[in-house]
Amino acid sequence: MLNSEQLETWDRDGFVVLPGFVSKQRCAELKAHVEGLLADIDPDNEGAISVFSTTEQSHAQDEWFLGSGDTVRWFFEDGAIVDGQLTRPLPLAVNKIGHAMHDLDPVFSDFSRTTDMAALASDVGIAEPQLLQSMYIFKQPGIGGEVTCHTDHTFLWTEPQSVIGFWVAIEDATVENGCLWALPGGHRIPVKSRFRLDGEGGTTNDVFDDEPYPTENLVPIEAEAGTLVVLHGTLPHWSGPNTSPISRHAYTLHVINSEADYPADNWLQRRPELPLRGFT
Ligand code: FE2
Q1: Omega prior to 99 cis, within 30 of 0
Q2: How close is the Cα of 152 to the center of ligand 1, in Å?
Q3: Cα 151 to averaged position of ligand 1 atoms, centre (Å)
Q4: Looking at the domain assignment, is residue 276 inside a domain?
Q5: Buried b (16+ CB within 10 A) or exposed e, 35-57
Q6: From CA 234, how far away is CA 106, in angstroms rounded?
Q7: What is the pLDDT at residue 56?
Q8: Residue 233: domain span
Q9: How far is the CA of 156 from the centre of ligand 1 (A)?
Q10: Among candidates 272, 273, 279, 270, which has minimal Cα distance to 67?
Q11: How many angstroms does the Cα of residue 254 sit away from the middle of ligand 1?
């Protein structure tokens, strides 16, 4: 799947950009599928809205988030719900859907389990791949929020590190609508923190190094719809708010190596009846 030049880029930069990995037609189909999912939601009878509307926000939202590892749940943009009411039509209020779309939604299962995707995982060194987490990200026009600079290993920890991210532009991503930015070579910087369960129903962040990443060295990854970006688990990356009138939909899939240890205090846990699976 990857040629020697792309593998060299991967080793040097910790990410590689693959334009045209997915057809624009396929992107349009996925977008239409998600629009159908959104159309089926009754805003007056939707648990997610009550969770995000409650006065005890942090606790209810923690539970909503922590229960999303093996379900498909909605998350809202900041400011999309005020006093229990949506401030805009629901399809323009959702921040993302996650985190087991690749197992529970047949369309995204098929999309995530192609021979091309499996070959790519093999090329970047995942010996025994397991599909851990997926998200459909909307980055809504006008209110799509910033995702602060982070590494995926911080959130999807394995011993040794193994997580790789596959980020697919479903729509064109530009600097204006909040494209991905990455720190070339930053995957060699030791990971600075680990996000984990705190044992009391919440989460905590173990900080090993509080020196911020040199974000002035981040480079934008503008990507046409259908582009796939492979991200090393220790690569710092960021995306800015979308202040433009154009949405920036993307799908991400995170894959780990089952030969690595998966800690019991990672935030993402699966019920035993829904074990992790590979590409087949
Ligand atoms: Fe990430």
Answers
A1: yes
A2: 5
A3: 6
A4: no
A5: eebbeeeeeeeeebbebbbeeee
A6: 30
A7: 56
A8: 4-257
A9: 10
A10: 270
A11: 9
Q: Report if residue 269 sits inside a domain.
A: no
Q: How many structural domains are present in the chain? A: 1
Ligand 1 centroid–CA 150 distance in Å is: 6
pLDDT computed for residue 55 by the predictor: 53
CA of 238 to the centre of ligand 1 (A): 7
pLDDT of 273 > 70? The answer is yes
Give the length of the chain: 280
Q: What is the pLDDT of residue 63?
A: 87
Q: Does some domain include residue 271? A: no
DSSP state string for 52-109: HH-SSHHHHHHHHHHTTTTSEEEEE-TTSEETTEESS-GGGTEEEEEE-HHHH-HHHH
What is the CA(256)–ligand 1 centre distance, in A? 14
Cα 186 to ligand 1 centroid, rounded to whole Å: 14
- Looking at residue 92, which CATH number applies to its domain? 2.60.120.620
Residue 143 lies in a domain: yes
How far apart are alpha carbons 59 and 149 in whole angstroms?
24
